[in-house]
Write a structure and sequence with these properties.
The chain is mainly α. The chain contains eight helices and no strands. The longest helix has 24 residues.
């Protein structure tokens, strides 16, 4: 019975692929949606980074799903790796060398600045909220490697994560309120190739960057603080 069901499922999937791909001649340009993005993306969104215009506006609801998946992953890791607080009389872990400590003190602010730069300029250059958030989290990983007993302030990180996620959803709902659709660009587009352009896209990327950075930093904390 199981083999029959498995065969039926495989046959159904195969038939679906044949129906979908059978009407697309090999080598012929049939990607109308992608052509629309390339030809009209800058005019409709104001973002010269076409990838940004697709991810944040045209497929913004999909990006919301990705952010939700990352949140679920962070919660799952926190639940699996949850441990009780260490005893106060436990011996502290050995710190990194003075050279590493000095380098961390010098590099950490620039790592945060680089992450912020990446997601603020996501509509102008390659990058965006996810990339900038990952850069920010790498700075906190460096702190853990340098000072093993250092701990992030989870209340602040949770607050930043919650507020940035709420801002993302509110921006999407405002697009519906204006009658243009979820995450629709309801602000003036400005002049392309300038920082203050692309309407709500920079604001969305700021929210995504802060949310991803705080979530990934929380994951790093859960992994590094594990007994």
């Amino acid at each position: 019975m199981r083999k029959a069901i498995a065969f039926l499922l495989v046959a159904t999937v195969g038939a679906a692929f044949y129906v979908v791909l059978g009407h697309i001649p090999f080598g012929e340009d049939k990607i109308d949606v992608a052509n629309h993005y390339i030809q009209n993306g800058v005019r409709e969104t104001g973002a010269v980074n076409i990838v940004t215009s697709v991810v944040v506006t045209y497929r913004g609801f999909d990006t919301l799903g990705e952010v939700t998946i990352l949140f679920i992953a962070a919660v799952g890791i926190g639940a699996v790796l949850f441990t009780e607080k260490k005893a106060r009389d436990e011996e502290p872990k050995q710190k990194a060398s003075l050279i590493v400590q000095t380098g961390t003190n010098l590099l950490f602010p620039f790592i945060l600045l680089t992450g912020v730069y990446v997601f603020i300029h996501g509509h102008l250059t390659p990058g965006g909220g996810f990339q900038g958030g990952a850069v920010i989290a790498s700075g906190y990983l460096l702190l853990y490697l340098t000072w093993p007993d250092w701990r992030i302030n989870r209340r602040r990180f949770n607050a930043v994560e919650s507020l940035s996620g709420l801002a993302f959803v509110v921006l999407g709902v405002l697009g519906i309120t204006y009658g243009m659709g979820f995450l629709a660009n309801f602000l003036p587009l400005g002049t392309p190739n300038t920082l203050f352009s692309a309407g709500i896209i920079p604001i969305i990327y700021i929210a995504i960057g802060l949310k991803v950075g705080s979530e990934l930093a929380g994951i790093v904390g859960n992994l590094m603080e594990r007994e």
